[in-house]
């Protein structure tokens, strides 16, 4: 993907008025519990969880396989309805999928019978935009992810990394306020994965969008996130909320900095299984470590200012 992303300023008219004028993408999860099945076959995937993700934050959810990361993400996407509790985005209760929340999956989930251009234009077309608008939006995002030359190809003709760039472009083409990503780079080779991470950060800083990103990979979480939410093993709950204060912008040389090693040790120790961790004597749940305790600060400088879309 091009490291140089195209400015979106000229395309702001496509964005909703609300998105252009004020901060959007505020996710609030209140007392959400998710259980699949009923009766003897009932299985709890997510224990009672509450979260407040602020507009424009980049949040990674980290945890062992099967702990409920995707299930929690899917409750924000509207694919899974919580058994109890509420999820709201910008004050609106989530009752199903919506264009305000873009989703990117590990398996690129593109329409194989549509060209790359038509895959990207799909959302705007469903939203009733004119052919001219769809074409303009598709061209913008094709350029943004460096795939203009492949506009008329089909997904099967592209590499995995290229297909995932289409997946991201397709999700962004609706100008969502929230981008939900479920291990989006898990199927890519190591080199492509690093490049995709860098370019995702470029797009994120350009858009000012809220990102919730599920991963197993501690390095990936630290490199990308403002906050790392660590989930316990199944049934999952958030047991740590770690604020990453490492300076931005972050790029490849930054990965070799000793500061990163100490952050990695810190997150790894918190995300490791912890049989001996103190628990709440009433519920038996692992104790939540307040974020003020969890903050580690490697560089004192604040993160680089975000460009305003307004
Ligand atoms: N639709 C479903 N019906 C029944 N059980 C489900 C469903 N979706 C998820 N589960 C169960 O919920 C639990 C959590 O699954 P989930 O996919 O959210 O975990 P995960 O942390 O994302 O795992 P991984 O990292 O391996 O993808 C698992 O026990 C899984 O079998």
TrEMBL record:
One of its GO terms (molecular function) is ATP binding. The keyword ATP-binding applies. It holds the Pfam family ABC_tran. InterPro entries: AAA+_ATPase, ABC_transporter-like_ATP-bd, ABC_transporter-like_CS, ABC_transporter_ATP-bind, P-loop_NTPase. PROSITE patterns: ABC_TRANSPORTER_1, ABC_TRANSPORTER_2. It comes from the Bacteria. Keywords: ATP-binding, Nucleotide-binding, Transport. The keyword ATP-binding applies. Residues 27-258 form the ABC transporter domain. Belongs to the ABC transporter superfamily. This is ABC transporter ATP-binding protein. It comes from Roseibium salinum.
């Amino acid at each position: 993907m091009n490291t140089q992303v195209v400015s979106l300023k000229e395309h702001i008219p496509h964005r909703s008025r609300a998105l252009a004028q004020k901060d959007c993408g505020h996710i609030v999860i209140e007392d959400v519990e998710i259980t699949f099945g009923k009766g003897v076959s009932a299985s709890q995937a997510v224990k009672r969880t509450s979260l407040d993700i602020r507009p424009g934050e980049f949040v990674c959810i980290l945890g062992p396989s099967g702990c409920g990361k995707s299930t929690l993400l899917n409750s924000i996407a509207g694919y899974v309805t919580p058994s109890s509790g509420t999820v709201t985005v910008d004050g609106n209760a989530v009752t199903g999928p919506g264009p305000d929340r873009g989703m990117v999956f590990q398996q690129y989930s593109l329409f194989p019978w549509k060209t790359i251009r038509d895959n990207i234009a799909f959302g705007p077309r469903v939203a009733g935009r004119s052919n001219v608008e769809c074409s303009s939006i598709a061209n913008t995002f094709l350029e943004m992810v460096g795939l203009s030359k492949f506009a008329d190809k089909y997904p099967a003709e592209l590499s995995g990394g290229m297909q995932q760039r289409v997946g991201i472009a397709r999700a962004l083409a609706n100008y969502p306020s929230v981008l939900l990503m479920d291990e989006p780079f898990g199927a890519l080779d190591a080199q492509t994965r690093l490049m995709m991470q860098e370019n995702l950060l470029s797009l994120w800083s350009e858009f000012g969008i809220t990102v919730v990103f599920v991963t197993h990979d501690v390095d990936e979480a630290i490199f990308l996130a403002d906050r790392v939410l660590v989930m316990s093993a199944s049934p999952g709950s958030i047991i740590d909320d770690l604020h990453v204060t490492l300076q931005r912008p972050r790029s490849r040389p930054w990965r070799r900095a000793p500061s990163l090693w100490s952050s990695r040790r810190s997150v790894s120790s918190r995300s490791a299984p912890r049989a001996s961790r103190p628990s709440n004597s009433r519920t038996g749940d692992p104790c939540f470590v307040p974020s003020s305790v969890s903050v580690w600060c490697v560089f004192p400088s604040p993160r680089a200012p975000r460009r305003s879309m307004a």
